[in-house]
Please model this.
Amino acid sequence: MKIILRLTSLLCLFFTFSGNGYSQITNQATNPPRLTHQMTPDEYSRRHEIGRSFIQTDPPAGEVTNLAEFNRASGAVVAYPFGIPLSLIREMAKDAKVTTLVPNASAEATVRNLYTQARVNLDNCAFLYISTNSYWTRDFGPMYITYGDKQIGIVDFPYNRPRPLDDDAPRSMAQMLGIEWFGMPVIHTGGNYMTDGHGLASSTTIAYTENPDISSEEVNQRMLNYLGITDYSVLADPNNTYIDHIDCWGKYLAPDKVLIRSVPASHPQYDAIEQTAAYYANKISIYGTPYKVYRVYTPQNQPYTNSYILNDKVFVPIMNSLFDEQALQAYRDAMPGYKVFGIIAQPSTPWESTDALHCRTHEMADMGMLYMKHIPILGNAPIQSSYTLTANIKVYSNEPIIADSVLLYYRVNPNPLTPFSPVVMTTSGGGLYSATITSPEAGSTIQYYLFAADNSGRREYLPFIGSPDPHEFYIGTPLTAQVDINPGGLAFTAMKDTEESENLTLNNTGQIGLNYNFTVSTDINDTLTFNLSNSPSANSYNSNTFNESGWTTFTVAQQEEVSNLLISYQWNTDDYYTEGSIWIESPTGTQYRAGAAQLDGYYSVSCPDFIGEPMNGDWKVWIEDSYGDGGHQATNIKVKIIKLNPTGNWLSIDSADGIVPAGSSAEIHVTANADSMEIGNYEGLITLYSNDPEEESIQIPVSFRVTINTSSAPEPLLADCIEVNPNPFSDKLTVSLNSMNESRLTLELFDIQGSGIYQSIQTVTAGEQQLTIPASNIRKGLYILRVTSGNQSETFKLIKL
Model:
């Protein structure tokens, strides 16, 4: 290297490590004046100073990989004074380390006091004594790499602003962290850079134009040498703004996913933005498939793409706009399984279209990470007898991988209830692991993810989020199953202590095996509803409405257990909405946070923690503010406690799961058993789950009538059969019968949900006769006609056209 850092002695002389972070005891620099995101007139006149004092080093040795933002991080790096709200820091510090750059001990004490007041978890806070010119840690911050023999280092660059303190911060961080620092001679900025963690990266053209002394080819070569970037996409800025930062319009979400802003067709940058989206839609990712391009709507230039990914959390800057929730949903759709938070800026440092949350935060690499590299099989795979999947696993903690912990989880042609099956991956040495899957039938879909664990306590999935968003490939061209079930509803009648059976016909008219599961329910929901008073006004309390205002309790007299509990409310909050939450506590003391970090709006929340608890007694509901200044109110509050009234295990099915080959059918035997049942009418529900993409679940209502059990057979009421015509019907139904004697006859018509549509009680005489049911006002659909006399009945399945 051109510069050699003698860290061993320097670390002992100049700084120490403490349990809560790092303390450089000799640096007593005063807090510098804060600069804006744009260059000041003075800075603009000193652009020639950019990179003047930069120290170039030799590139890192061996294979180099630039870690992506969505790789595992130990935490985040922020600079004080802050450009982000304390509520964001508090959320990050719940389960990750927040490292704060402060100029000296006095500033650390100030920040600790702020964190204490804001209830930030100080156990997850660290401090580095590094003076900075600004809080844009993304722009001047380090680029983390792996290199050599499982080493992690920092690559630095001349910051594209004449800000010497900011520019020197990454080198100081490397010294204090005790890792190698590499100086890459490419003027750059973090807000104009994103990488997929596999050698692909993107920036706008200022990556070239701000390096006028070297060619674009030389820039690319240096990006390869220092960061391992083999494919560098350098694009014109479609926003056409002064800053030309890529995070103002795009973001890698995964190695094969990219988020691009969208605007109305009337927007002046519409064409340029759409061309950029089309570029990525046609670009091949490291996985060998085109990028999956997701869009977030930014009609007023909202900075929604300027977000920050911290492990399984995504923090999105929002603007108190009508489009905020739509933006958050765009992230949820693109990143299933991640927790997506909308973050409102502090009034003193508002989000801007060219400067938002991502610009003001930076990840801190996990120095002991468990790193898995795997190029998945995706899309249409060639048809073969088996598929072998391989992964390269590196352990940076120097702790061994737990034996048999490296697993491949997969499932074939899954329906919503299909579990993943684990297969132990075997090692061939050198961190290489593999597992083989026997190929299912051509056209099948396979979903899978990987898992590994080491003795440091680290547990990692690949994809990062695991089962909510698995890799997926097809055996040749993907084919689909298509389900048809007949009938769409069942009606049983049985005498007490007897049973009646009927078949469901499950047809697969698709091209691939139908993977099905049935569930059965015979419980009846009974809902108790409680209307609560509005919570105290947003400014009438500080921390807790129950302790401060006595809001509120309600009493349940019933003795049964809770089957489910729902709370719905209108939520009104302030700019610090992440600090507010609404809680509910059961009579046994179980507490559940029903809502937290919610924007203004109407919410209906299920509270599963209360399932199985006794409902009798006093319940509590209250609002908390974690900062201690109020600002949140709930109105129009309803609590619904649902109890299940079991009607007995009278409904069963003989084949709860299975596979129906393409073009085939299966008879599913359904039984209604009146053993020990009371005389009366019962309702049940059969739910079919399948891998038919058009109908993943179908509900089949079931009615069951239990009648008296006579010791001797009753005299027949009717002839051998009753005829109901026409079927299908339109305007009317005609019931033809030959009665054996005079009797009272009941005609009942039910829809597929079991609701009564028509009922008529008539006296019939002996002999042949016809009864008419008017049907002109009945909707199209499937119906069940029940003809009853005394203890006897017959049912007919009918279709209205």
